[in-house]
Structures are given as structure tokens and as C-alpha cells.
Amino acid sequence: MDEYYIYIVECSDGSLYTGYAADVKERVKKHNAGLGAKYTRHRIPVTLRYQESFATKSEAMKREIAIKKLSRKQKMLLIGDE
Question: Domain 4-79 carries which CATH code?
């Protein structure tokens, strides 16, 4: 059974980026190599702050969209920083 994840990384400028991946560890490595999302390319290094797992890619993508709609304060509460 495959698992999919959503994750939140904190960029070097303090901003937060949310994405989904089948392998979060490898995805964070790609971000830090400058091969990840366009948003993170000039904000490296990034640090993994949060992740959730899902049974399907569809569930993970729906959760990613929901998290992206949250305010920064709500995201910080989610990752346990406020």
C-alpha cells in the first residue's frame, strides 16, 4: 500500500511552504538541492516542520489545498509553534 504525505517546510526567510509527496525525506532533499518547487529554490535551506500521511494521493492533495488556505498563524498552530 502506497502512502502519500503533505508536509510543511520553513524556508530560510521564515516563510512556510506546503506540498505533497510520496517520500517527504527525498522531497526535502530536492528542495534543499534547488530542485524543488520554484517558490523554495531561492529560499534554501528549508527545514521540515510538519507532515501528515494519507492512504491516497487524492486525500493528500485535498489536505494540501486546505492547508494552503490557512493563515500563517493557523499554520503555526498546526505545526505547534504558537
Answer: 3.40.1440.10
